[in-house]
Amino acid sequence: MKKYLALLALSVSFSSVASAQQDPKAGKILDQMSAKYKAMKAFKATFTQTLENDAAKVKENLSGDITVSGQKFRLKMSGQEVINNGQTMWTYMKSENEVNVSDYEPDEQEVSPSQIYTLYKKGYKYNYAGEAKEGGEMVDIIDLSPEDRNNPVYKVRLKVGRNDKAVKSWQMYKKNGNRYTYRISKFLPNAPVDATTFNFDKTKYKGVKVIDLR
Q1: CA-CA distance, 103 to 119, in Å (whole number)?
Q2: Domains (range + CATH), the chain
């Protein structure tokens, strides 16, 4: 569950320096990026997550994939599967063959992956931080910051492809010294989805223990 929460945290708590303003250049890039994803019926992304903490000498790598359609998503990562149909959320843990069922109630500081591309529009500041080359292509770098100073994350650095306006990677910096890096390795626009994609079918998980927390 902690690994899942770490992933969800990638979509919230954006921060940069306290002096950051609403940068028009950054805003234009973010609007173009957001429009790109909102125009898709659905998409699927394969990613890697790297957790680093220099003081604690920690470096951990995880991989996974996520399918998103509107407010719905299906996430697979490190023996866990999280399915959200917009109202109900199922968290399946393979090692225990157990699924927790709960009402989906997104927290302001732990927003679902389906909102990452529009979150900047409310409650966040953004600032253009420069350009770089990543994976052989130019990217624009944007820092985002939450207006809530109590947020445990102090900076997220988002990298957007200059030509296709697609999110290539992002880094999330937490006040406890943890640094998360997410890189998209494969991306499928308009991924095929149906009524079963965002619902948990226990008949496909033999002997699964269902814990209803609603």
Answers
A1: 21
A2: 2-212 (2.50.20.10)
